[in-house]
Amino acid sequence: MKRYILLLLIVVAIHGQSYAQNKFSISVAPELLYSNGYTEYELQASGMTDFPEINDTLFAEIRSLLEFPLDAPMVGICFRMNSRILQKKDWGLKARVLTNIANPSGVMKDHDWIKVSSLNVDHKFSYTESDTEMRSVFVEFEGTRVVSRQNNTDLSVLAVVSFQHSNQDIIGVSGWQFAEILDPATKQYFPENSYVGKVLEYRINNLMLQLGGEANINARTWLDIGAKGALAIARISERDDHLLRKKLIEATSSGFGFVGGVNAHFSTAGDNDVGRFINLSFEVIHVNTSGTQKQTWYDDETVGSVVVMDRGTVINGLQHKTSSTQLRFGVQFGVWLK
Description:
Blueprint: H1 2-15, E1 20-21, E2 24-51, E3 56-69, E4 72-85, E5 88-100, E6 108-116, E7 121-150, E8 153-178, E9 187-220, E10 223-242, E11 247-267, E12 274-297, E13 301-303, E14 306-309, E15 314-337
Antiparallel strand pairs: 1-2, 2-3, 2-4, 2-15, 3-6, 4-5, 5-7, 6-7, 7-8, 8-9, 9-10, 10-11, 11-12, 12-15, 13-14
């Protein structure tokens, strides 16, 4: 995928091709984007739990939070087509595809808490960090339709369908945990690089539908300024393979969010001329979803020589929440013909 996108970037950069007819403007432009943010999922479970350190079985509540970084540079291609009536944009279509060209600079974080009311215990018992290797693809289709035009300002309705796939390998472990989950005095640290192998394989697919509005102001003959806002419906599927624990987590969740953004479009020629453009953009995306997850042990999970979960064990219906926040800074440059 990356090889083909980079090849398209080179072709567009060299030839800068654009095509137009009387009522249409079409452009294809390379896009550079930096995404900063994270996706996190939270698991909550409760039930009777064995505590060997006190030789008792008690009701306990467990909460786990895993944070996966998304801060990475991306490259891709953006295609635009606009209809034009009396030299004004009447409707517009946009499609773009991007992929990351470097791994996230942030680390994956894993937090765990336990609450045992009968013992008056409520604390965090584990925190670890790991490096991340990521392969991701982002695809988006957008349509706009002008509904109001006043002087140099267009107001449009906006509909967007987007799909984001991310596949992350989580490598190494550093941090701390309690050797005995109920006793903070047994806290032990894992030095950095104490384990350097792969510990998790995480995959997420995020499908979103956005409905909202957009305002565009023609501030100068060479400058358009735009702003948009939309509500989002999200459907997320996740697969998390805990390699050390021999446990596979699968979850599907649905929910809502919002998307907002601003952009500045700089052109080098007037409405009737061929010219080049640079488009600068900023977007913020946030979604929250909830659903259930399934955990399957594909081999015995052991602590030392003790088997703590048998191969073939399946737990269904665990509460699962996912949250994702991203800030995206982008630049597009290309040739248009109006």
